[in-house]
Structures are given as C-alpha cells and as structure tokens.
Amino acid sequence: MSVSIIFARSTNYCIGKDGQIPWHLPDEFAHFKRTTLGKPIIMGRKTYEDHQSALPGRRNIVISRQANYQVVDSIELQPSLDKALESAHKSSDEVFVIGGVHFFVEAFKKASLVYETIVEADIEGEAILPVFDFNGWESQVIERHKKDEKHAYAYRVIKHMRL
C-alpha cells in the first residue's frame, strides 16, 4: 500500500491564497489530473471547500472531525487521515493526499512518493508549506514548463521517491 502526496507550491512555499490556488497553470493541472485519475484522493475540509464538488474519475475522501459535515453525495467523509487512508486502501494500492498543509505534513511521514510542482515565483498567501526534508529520497525532475501565453509562470515538477 502506497501513500503519495501531490502539490504545487511557489518558490516561497505558498500553496494557497484566500482559499484558492493563487495561479492558473492549465498544463500543471493536467499533470495533477493525469497523475491522480483513477486513484482515491484525500483532502481536508478546507481544501474541499475550495471547490465543493467531487473531482471526477477519482474516489474523493474528505477529512473532517465534524460528523455531520455536509458534502456532496459522491464524497466519502472520514474523521482522520488514518481512517481516510485505511478506507482508501480498501479500493487501491496507491492513494493521493491532495491538501491542505496540515494533511501534507501528517502524510509526509507515511509517504513513499511526492509529486512536487515548484512554480517559479514568490507568491503571497496564507497557506504556506514547511520545507520538507528529502534527504534519503531519490528526486528527479519529470517536467519543465516555460512561461507562455497560457501560463503566467514557469514551473517544474519533481518526483521524489523514498529510498
């Protein structure tokens, strides 16, 4: 059973501003979709509230300690990351944690794979990741994208595999 994490961050580790992703990078979103399609995805309540819908083609699990928290019908509610992982692993060997900061930090200890997109800009926001220590991991750049008419920022995607 594998726990994977996938996120995009700015060079100053921002992942969110005003409850939203603070950039529009269509090809980076396509990478996210391609990578997670067909796999269970786990997110915290605040991440879910950013879009308040199920991401299609994936089993969506939302973590909330509020037992009566309202989610759309196709979303599963779990009280903790451990319970969400336990449930997700019943249907798939690979499970993705997709946010927010708290769950990235908690899942990092269990993760065997991290897909990290680094957006080549300092961006202000209130959702800031800590610096993850990838010593003891094998890391490789799997994609580079230049700034263009559809992408306000250049970015690169790094795949980190725990050794």
Polypeptide structure, described:
The protein is α/β, with parallel strands linked by helices. It has a single domain, classed as Dihydrofolate Reductase, subunit A, CATH 3.40.430.10. It is built from four helices and ten strands; from the N terminus they run E-E-H-E-H-E-E-H-E-H-E-E-E-E. The longest helix has 11 residues. The two termini are 15 Å apart. The relative contact order is 0.27.
**Number of extended strands:** 10
Q: What is the 3D shape? A: globular
State the share of residues found in helices, binned by percent: 10-25%
CATH topology: Dihydrofolate Reductase, subunit A
Radius of gyration: 15 Å
CATH architecture type: 3-Layer(aba) Sandwich
CATH superfamily: Dihydrofolate Reductase, subunit A
**Share in β-strands:** 25-35%
Number of helices: 4
**Biggest sheet, spatial arrangement of strands:** 5-4-3-6-1-7-10-9
Mean pLDDT, to the nearest integer, reads 96
Topology readout:
Elements lengths: L1 E9 L3 E3 L9 H11 L4 E4 H7 L8 E4 L11 E4 L2 H8 L5 E6 L1 H8 L4 E7 L7 E2 L8 E9 L9 E8 L1
Parallel strand pairs: 1-6, 1-7, 3-4, 3-6, 4-5
Antiparallel strand pairs: 2-8, 7-10, 9-10
